[in-house]
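I am writing to request your help with a piece of structural work I have in hand. Thank you for your consideration; the sequence and its tokens are set out here:
=====
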Amino acid sequence: MSALSAIDIGTNSVRLLITDSAGRELARVMRMTRLGQGVDVTGDIGDLVGEPMLEHKAVAQAHVAVEVIAGQNRRFDPATIAAVCFTEPEIVSAGLLPKEAEAAGHDPVSAVFPFQANGRALSMEAGDTGGFVRVVARKSDHRVVGLQAVGAHVSELSGEFAMSIEMGARLEDLAGTIHVHPTLSEAVHEAALRALGHAIHI
């Protein structure tokens, strides 16, 4: 949960420090200077307050900062922030890798579904490049703690990856969600099925 940790009201400005529940800075030195009838708001968010240095994180922090300034009870405490490498092939990751999940004490189960067995990847001639979707979950309750993918256009899976972790999805949730055919997202469904020991297309 975010909190307004410090405030200093001057003649022409307001200086704020906004932190998350762990005391990490989310926004600092917010200044509001009266310019005629309007208000100019500037401040430090995003890269200036640490990793991950991603534009979509900075925008989300900016929204929270402005809403806090407006007096709303808002917080910036995401379960994950997906990251994408726009390379060829693309790489997307949200949450924990298998070794990170193990180090965090989750006793993970993980499964990989290769794009060689995905109709959409094959139709794009991207099935033979070694691409895949991997799901990482806790063995105890099957809660998904990480999702990764490598392959053509996998950046488009980043929203599903982040939402699955943010909403506390379990392997059964991913496996039970009907994914459109033929799409790359079917590999998410198949990876979850494989982690549950019920793989269909591999």
Summary: The first strand starts at residue 3 and ends at 9. The mean pLDDT is 82. Strands lie at 3-9, 14-19, 25-35, 38-44, 83-85, 90-95, 108-114, 132-138, 144-151. The CA atoms of residues 63 and 170 lie 29 Å apart.
